[in-house]
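Deviations from the work plan: none for this task. Representative record:
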Amino acid sequence: MSSLTLIWVIALVLIGAALAWMSGLILARLVKETRAADRTADRKMIIQALSGLLRGQAEAGDILAPFVRRPQVLAEAVLDFQGLIRGADQERAMGALRRLGLIPALETRIIHGSRDERLTSVEALAALGGEEVKAALRRAIRSKDPNVRMAAIKGLADAGAPPTPSRLLDYVGTGELTPSRVYSEVMRQAVAAAPADGLLALQRHDLSSLMRAVLLDALGRSGAYEAVPALALAAEDPAPDVRTAAVRGLGRLQHPAAASTLAAALTDEAWTVRSAGAEAVGAAGLVRLAPQVAALLDDPEWWVRFRAGDALGKLGKAGRGQLEAAAADGARPVAQRAAERALAEIG
Amino acid sequence: MPELETLALIVVRFAETIAWAVIATGLAQNALYLYQLVLAARALSQAPPVNQAALLWRRYAEAAPPITLMAPAYNEALTIVESVRSLLALQYPHFEVVVVNDGSKDETLQVLVDAFELHPVERHYDLATPCQRIRGLYAAANQPRLLVVDKENGGKADALNAAINLSRSPIVCSMDADSLLEVDALLRAVAPFVEDPERTVAVGGTIRIANGCKISFGRVVEVGVPRNMLARLQTIEYLRAFLMARLAWSRISTLTIISGAFGLFRRQAVLDVGGYSHGTVGEDMELVVKLHKHYRRLRKPYRVAFTPEPVCWTEAPETMAVLSRQRARWHRGALETFFRHRDMILNPRYGRIGVVGFGHILVVDVLGPIIEIFGYVLIPAFWLLGVLDIAYLWALLAVTFGFGIVISVGALALEETELRRFPNARSLAVLMGAAILENFGYRQINNFWRLRGTWQFLTGAQGWGKMTRKGFSSQP
């Protein structure tokens, strides 16, 4: 074959392949349009049957039963339907689905389904509720898909059975999970359920600064006052991110015993810590720290000035007095402007 | 006449060299596109888009960080109220809309004040990024998500800087006031910030052409194919640019542009690089390149992500005159950024961004149009002179077109396989026709427009040129 012929063959193969690809896509779309219509009709039928279940229609279970063999469409419909009902109605509908054998069917899809199916199945599984589901979710944590693992753990946390904080930390340590914002939410649920375990986990030596910050944030949101000493200790950590999380946590707990730690935070070298300190003083209503907070009104960092003004606004008369004094003090123009803006925002 | 023979030989050699350079460039570009197609297909298959908005809410709402939507407006009195209403109706747990009236000469500010019952307010803000003087802030108790900033005119970059200064959210979203956002756009685009909060600094979203779509109250309610041929060709072009090229480059951490029509940024990261740059028409690309440069220099791990799902719709020009101005301007913007950051070109210090990202701009944007136009002019000339073999010319041209069609169809196939937003098989067939057609004339004209952009860059031309839009109200 001459080089000219070869070039022409390549050109024709490319054009032919593109035309064949196009035709295939159009044909596939025609088939999918029919399937999509069927699927929409199926979902509608499932939701009507679930509504029927709630109204006590005996035939509703018979309508749903065949769909257990097609758990994906059932899972999608369950997720839609579950968002519409609450309380006893939800439990009745989900209980009926459990009795139809949906749990093992979904478990099969978690293992053998496509990526999308695996995730939808584990989310639908979590929606079903009940002890059997918790066991299934614990098995799903072993999935190779990190999204499925995270969804299973989130499902367990939402069902009031999160893994322990230490176990959650292990998942990140082994690379099974990444410290996403969803992970942080689950950590908050886990620590709120077992603050003592959270405190114990804080003593681990294998934690990175990031994971310590995540844990401290969860402890701060747990409402457990026994975390105050540990948070106060963490507020002296060499890592600014850890100190910031600890100070924020103390602000959320709003415990007067944290006053000396928060006072120290107001003069921290890291602006994120000073800003968190001002915010925490305002949240905890530590009126006696108002002068120290007012000193931050001419901090070099805008966020600190803003948080200081905001905090003073929350400290009642004492805070407002500091703001008014700063607003009148022409010798500190930066503080004056910050105080004026804070007073204007407070109204 | 040995001198004449030598001269003829030199001309033939020169012609051959030019021809091979053009062919090699064309093949290199096509190989690059094929590579992008493969990367994009892998990205889509490994992270398939979520079709149901309710599922997105379930997955991300609890963990979603607050976002400030920044909408710069200049002389938008006719459309601004509807645009803002549609922004306020977005589905996202925590967001605020900061509309910046960039010194409009019409009634933009007044119509906003009247429509939303706004009154002057005070807000503590820092001039962290440079912007023109802010004349006033307006808000209303019954619209707690809305803040209107009235400032002196300074251009889009300046208006965005003002909005960043006033934002108190960790994430800011840049957009055009006339962009149409999907109702779940923020939920979709925020996913990388939720999944990888430590590293993610920016997220781009897919922009689609709204021409031919049914639009109601600032939303695309029914996707359609444009009736105007120019807009139809741009539909294919946008699919190739967003669903293929940007998704592919984001997968290998070399994405150098996030469209100004929609992009999410970590506010602190934007402040760290000094905000949007003034004095360029490509401020969107410039910002992303600055972010890359900043984090590469600091050797800090970071991520510029891209979401393939359509999050924003824009009106495409339907006349050659307007389109040519837009393309020349885009090209000028790309060149401005490229040469402003020329120290990054093929510089291993900047890793893949220097080598692949800037290398790609060099081959495709800087040299590509020049060499291609060179080819269009010289190769027929050489053929007329009888120094090139016409049989080979036709064959190679056929290969180039074959590649072009495969790539355009590939981009359409990605859309059809993973997103399937076009309504039916007929619309697909129409777009496939456009995917073939665009190789015969449209691509070549585009190169001339880009060359004009190069000329404007070299001569230091300023301004945006007149950008006339039909407006969404006239859409079917």
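The first helix of chain B runs from residue 2 to 46.
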